[in-house]
Amino acid sequence: ILCVHFQYTSNKIMEPPSQNLKTTPLLSLRRFHISEDYGFLLPNPLKELPDQFRPWMEIANELPHLIESRQLQARVNKMPLLSCQGLKSYREQRLAHLVLSFITMGYVWQEGQTQPKEVLPRNLALPFVEVSRNLGLPPILAHADLVLTNWTTRNPERSLEIRNLDIIVSLPGGESLRGFILVTVLVEKAAVPGIMALVQAVNAILQHRDNSLLRALQQLRLSIQDITRTLGQMHNYVDPDIFYAVIRIFLSGWKDNPAMPVGLTYEGVSTEPLKYSGGSAAQSTVLHAFDEFLGICHSKESADFLHRMREYMPPSHKAFIEEIHSAPSLRDHILSSGNDQLLTTYNECVEALVELRSYHITVVTKYLITVATKAKGRKPNHLPGPSQALEERGTGGTVVLSFLKSVRDKTLEAILHQSD
Ligand code: HEM
Fold this sequence. Notes:
Bound molecules: protoporphyrin IX containing FE
Strand order of the largest sheet: 1-4
Oligomer: single chain
Helix content: 55-70%
CATH class: Mainly Alpha
Radius of gyration: 22 Å
Number of helices: 21
CATH topology: Methane Monooxygenase Hydroxylase, Chain G, domain 1
């Protein structure tokens, strides 16, 4: 059922082309808050909040030091309770969510993963939940904070490359954390031509313009390959030991996490603890959009997890995925067209996506699995350490490798054969 595309009625296809399109490509991107230049990245994120929020910004600006010297919890407890009423623009709200999410992760995990704080004080919990509700984001650090809102150019005239980029708010992890965030920013940027191609392709199907569809599919393949190349930059900027021992902890959530089995109590919000998954690029809209467009069918278990991750996206980006889902099926169109060139190019997109997912598995193996095995070997048995469950799970709390392999293998199953 998950993979059935709702078909536009056939009389819609008979209408003149101008009415076939509900909107032009550019207009529809704008409707979903997707930038032609930056894709799902927030264009030109703010670095400062209005003056009344200085108590938050002062803490945010020295987070790594406050956490490493274990002073953050005490500082937060003394923080004044501020209302989000003073946040006017969308970009201000996104920066506030970024800042409060980073402070929250630091607050919960300051003493390490074995002694998390299970109650978030009301002066942090109340404004965080308020701004989260306004934005339709969960009250935890999400990909939308860590990556989409957390980048700035040193020289706006120059292109986006690591040397010309910086992060806005930091956590422990130094240069490796900076590299981890900025390489992911560049991955989002590399996806932009692919997102544009996808919109062009959906419109080309509606208008029965197979040449335009073919060119769009070629562009999509190139963009997926560029994403894979960009992902490879992780190796140049991120140290696996630091990723595993430091960064991973601060991205961890409080759902399916044995370190916080009941969740986090947001004081003043709810008496029951709430459960939220940690930050992960599984919350990036890019691959969800490609999967929907290419008609990839994941197993029920993987699809359930991936669909949950959509709740961590800005609502307009989630709506974009749903829009692609309800557009006419690319696969059906290719099969009924009998156009071999379209079929071959479609398959090349699927293969490129399989290669991206295989490459991602080697990255995850290096940054999580291999380091975890090494850490286990070093640790004398009688000393307490992270539980086995923690080590085998990713920051988003899935049993990592089997999930990632299933997602990759199901992608491969989408390959079309002439006889289909
Ligand atoms: C050091 C770098 C990275 C590590 C260690 C890593 C780790 C993981 C883990 C553990 C998962 C499993 C789900 C979860 O626990 O949340 C996952 C899923 C995922 N990651 Fe990464 N990741 C890294 C970089 C990236 C980047 C840069 C991207 C951007 C394309 C990405 C895209 C995804 C996607 C889309 C999924 C969902 C599964 C899928 O659709 O194939 N990851 N990652």
